[in-house]
Amino acid sequence: MQYRLGLRRFLSMRSGVLGLVVVGTFTLLAVIAPWISPWPPNTQDLMNTLAPPSGEHLLGTDQLGRDLLSRIIFGARTSMGLGVVVVGIGLLAGTALGLTAGLAGRAVDAVVMRSVDMLMAFPSILLALAIVSALGPGLLNAMIAIGIAATPRFVRIMRASVLGVKPREFVEAARAVGASELRVALVHVLPNALAPVTVFATLLMAEAVLTAAGLGFLGIGVQPPTAEWGAMLSEGRTYLRTAPHVVTLPGVAIMLMVLGFNLLGDGLRDALDVRLSD
Amino acid sequence: MARYLVGRLVAVFPVLVGVSFIVLLVMHLIPGDPAVVIAGVGASGEDIETIRRQLGLDRPFLLQYITWVNNMLRGDWGRSAVTREAVLPLLASRVQYTALLAAVGVVLAVGAGVPLGVLAAVRRNQPLDYGATMVALVGISAPIFWIGLVLQLLFAVRLGWLPTSGAGTWRHLVLPAIAIAANSTAILTRMTRSSLLEVLGQDYVRTAHSKGCARRRVIGHHALRNALIPIVTVIGLQFGYLLGGAVLTETVFVWPGVGRLLADAIFRRDFPVVQGAVMLIAVAFVFVNLLTDLAYAYLDPRVRYA
Amino acid sequence: MKGAGGALAVVGVIAALVFLGPGSQSVAGPASAQQGGTLVFAIGIPVTSLDPGMSAGAPEISVRRAIYEQLVQLGEGGEIRPGLATSWQVSDDGRVLTFSLRRNVRFHDGTLLTASAVKASLDRLLDPAQGLPLRFGLTWIKAVEAVGDLTVRISSDTPFGPALRHLANASASIISPAALRQYGKDVAWRPVGTGPYRFETHVPGESVTLVRFDGYWGGRPPLDRIVVRTVREDATRVALLETGEAQIVDNVPGTEVPRLQKDGRVKIKLDASTRVAHIGINVQRPPFNNVKVRQALNYAVYRRAIVRGVLHDVGVPVSTIFSPATWGYADLGMYPYDSNRAKQLLAEAGYPNGFQTVLWTPDGRYYMDRQTAVAVQGQLALVGVQAEVRVIDWATYLQVLRRPFETSETQLYLLGWESGTGDAAYVLDLVFASSAWPPRSWNTMFYRNPEVDRLIAAGARETDLRKRMKIYEDLQRIVMTDAPWIPLFAYQHIAGLARNVEGVQVLPGEEYVLRDVYFSRQ
Question: Which residues of C are less than 8 Å from B263 in CB distance?
Fold first, then answer.
């Protein structure tokens, strides 16, 4: 069976377990943020800005004198949600379109892939401006904009995998015994073509967070003063030389999040993949 | 194959028409127009109207689009609504810089990322794998402005080896190329590692291995070649996006590429420049994607289009 | 996980290399003037046009000021000095200004400066059909006449107090009539003036190069060449200064000032700016149509804390509509920080528990604009006013603020008005006159007070400076009692200079005068 989750195998892989631990920890932090944060995330102290770590503020304060540790804890809520939703949009849409284009070929492939070319050439800043003026400034709309902008890459990667899997013997064999096209696509091709998009998806978590922050000045995305790692990082750039902790700590948080999802992704893939077992 | 190629080349036109129409439509629908931006803070409402008329913004949208297409086909890409500079020479002066930076960036990323990914796969769960993972993680999580500014502080301000910014000599190219390659290198490392692990687990590789083929040959020839399809895809994607311009790298290093030009033009609603830049970028994507697709067929003869 | 630990270690090593200790190589020695050299001037925005009539940011106008000159000049302290005119008389009724032009002044193309050249330049700017946005500063002019070769007469319907200041503005630059005839609108990139440096080339969006004009009436200019480079990233501009790749750097971030002041290679030049950061209030919209609410908001903001925390002390708290650098400013001492008074006023207005509102801000248009808005948001929250900060991109901002009253969605918005002339009348006409409601002009508060209108007119007409100052003091008291703005602070302009750069002047409008800049020998 292609889809049976090898739980024992998953648990036997150190990296996958570690990934689960990291992602789990961040998720837990996000959930219990209000109870464990030493300070409210948006309380300002303009007389104590850019303070280095101290007993009062364990990781120091940011440019408005807000407690960095609390903002990083609260940031887990927005940043992780943002990353997961954006990557989810790209992954779902990209996988579906890539699978269709790769398997159907000919006219369908041409139409899907030329549309993808168009979307790739469409400037993402303009896409963001269009979405903010059509749907408003919210975070969800930013996620939609970034998710749409990320979709073409998922489509191309998925289609490439499908093109590589399609001519293999077991696909031919499935067709030969009369499996329907849908069954061939979902049962035989998809699981064997998923690995590259999965890896790419975990890597794109970071880009999603950083891109959302980069669009902040257009008024789309996380609205100030909401704590969000990418926004903290990009707002902190001015202080790179005078108060490097303000920009470095959110960066480390993003890195750990990507690490967690990446390892988890690897672990899940290995556990799902029968061919890797002996 | 020839028919496929011709078909793909002809398909450039619907892509260009589609993109240019949607771009102009969106520019038309979002708030703000070049007249407001040109007039700036303080200008009177009457003057804004005069500028709007001078730019032809008072005409119906479809007419504006048709005029633009018409002029474009005759080689007239128009003038910037804001600076009045001719669009075509403006783009021409920048395309070379973007192409250079993108090409060097991709070469660096492939040169570093693919070997690193191969090593990580071969030495799976060993210190080398962890090391490669670590480098990749920093490359992915660090925003390009952070990498750029740190490089600048290190190599220009503190060590004085390289110029801070600008373009002209190869020395100007080093830092932006590294900054722009960092992210692609990281992605390629991880993608190469996973693709290679994938094929290393496949039956025929193990067969080849058990037949006594040297391990190095198995990895170098059989495995890598099959793992290359997703890797080539990612290389093509990264190259395409770099050809589309790298706004942040260009900003930090004052690199005169297309990305910054396009971003500025969007902020100013300077649609002749936006349209021109988008046309170039669309052509770049179409060709890079075509090359990628051709590469699949070359790498794996079983992949067939038509 | 070794990966994460290792990555942290890498970050640490890089941080140590980059951040530890200043790389100071201080240079010392007696200074003496040195002829020649190339000056690199790094600014944060691209130069979009060198047409004096086109709107532009202060750095861009600085470039125009090196190429073009005006009838009179503004000094660093806001005083009026002779420019292309050596002297001028004001008629008894105050409606006619007569200028005597400097003799033997040549444009860069060799044309001689004459009265008709002055007329041609000013008429072009004033012609509505030209669509030159900076026309708005000179609309008080009724006619420009050339009386003989070197005499120009400028008349208006009523006396206009700040007339000379407007004529000192870069928009009133005198352009070579030959160039105007030859290039028309293209004069934007073929600028021909009488200034000390003439235009050589430009790379669109990247740089403008000026070279010494040997025929300059004021003698041979000190520098051979000025290269104006657009470098948007603040940190990159600072790095350019530190490596010596640029000699003047515009808009150094306030946080970098203490560090750079200790660096022997550079100098920091601080100048008062006329720009006032403020929160504008749509005074027609409930709950802001209640004056007590507007006053409450003014008591609720803690200006000194904002200047301290957000600007790192590089700015001046103000509680009136002008900067101390603007002629006409009066220190009224209104609205000290008093959150209790704010709460009390809100309660009297019927909002004991505050209310919800939206605060618009641009991001990156003014120094620390978004951070300022967030700081204000935090302070308003302390008195119960929950403001949602909404960042809006600049082109959209210009449009949504200027919607007519019927369709306006404005509640609170952040903006930074400056006086291009250094005079109070500039902002009053544009922003506080009831005739200036959008879409006509920039009264984006939809403020209307007949008494204020009367005083604006009286102030503009008055030519006796003492009386004029009194009018503006009264006017500020009335406006700030009505409180259509929450003034926050006046900016300080920060320029970074290489140690051997001398003679830099920065006008109250944040514009540089590069004419007298030279390199001293170290």
Answer: none
Query: Phi and psi (nearest 5°) for C27?
Result: -115, 140
Place of tokens 């837990």: A28
**Binary contact (A242, C256; C-beta < 8 A):** yes
Instruction: Kindly state the tokens that stand for C286.
Output: 């409930």
Inter-chain touch B45–C402, beta carbons under 8 Å: yes
- Which residues of chain B does C129 touch, with a Cβ-Cβ cutoff of 8 Å? 50
Interface mutation target, options A22, A112, A199, chain B, most CBs of B under 10 Å: A199
Does any CB of chain B come closer than 8 Å to the CB of residue A15?
yes
| Residue spans of beta strands (DSSP E) within C383-517 | 386-391, 412-417, 485-498, 501-502, 505-506, 512-513
Q: Does A261 touch chain B (CB under 8 A)?
A: no
**Which residue has 């696509």 as its token pair?**
A185
Distance between CA atoms of C267 and C197, rounded to whole angstroms?
24
What pairs with residue C491 in β-bridges?
C315
The answer to whether the CB atoms of B90 and C402 lie below 8 A apart is no
Helix, strand, coil content of chain A in percent (nearest 5): 75, 0, 25
Strands, sheet with C96-101, edge to edge from the N-terminal-most edge strand: C85-90, C96-101, C151-156, C141-146
ipTM of the complex: 0.90
Measured in Å, how far apart are chain B's first and last C-alpha atoms?
A: 7
pLDDT string in tens for chain C (522-residue length): 344 445 455 545 554 444 444 333 333 344 466 778 999 999 999 999 999 999 999 999 999 999 999 999 988 877 899 999 999 999 999 899 999 999 999 999 999 999 999 999 999 999 999 999 999 889 999 999 999 999 999 999 999 989 999 999 999 999 999 999 999 989 999 999 999 999 999 999 999 999 999 999 999 999 999 999 999 999 999 999 999 999 999 999 999 999 999 999 999 999 999 999 999 999 999 999 999 999 999 999 999 999 999 999 999 999 999 999 999 999 999 999 999 999 999 999 999 999 999 999 999 899 999 999 999 999 999 999 999 999 999 999 999 999 999 999 999 999 999 988 889 999 999 999 999 999 999 999 999 999 999 999 999 998 888 999 999 999 999 999 999 999 999 999 999 999 999 999 999 889 999 999 999 976
What is residue C495's DSSP assignment? E
Determine whether the interchain pair A121/B282 forms a contact, defined as Cβ–Cβ distance below 8 Å.
Answer: yes
Give contacts of B90 with chain C, Cβ < 8 Å. 204
- Which residues of chain C does B150 touch, with a Cβ-Cβ cutoff of 8 Å? 14, 18
B161 in reach of chain C (CB within 8 A): no
Residues in C touching A15 (Cβ below 8 Å): 1
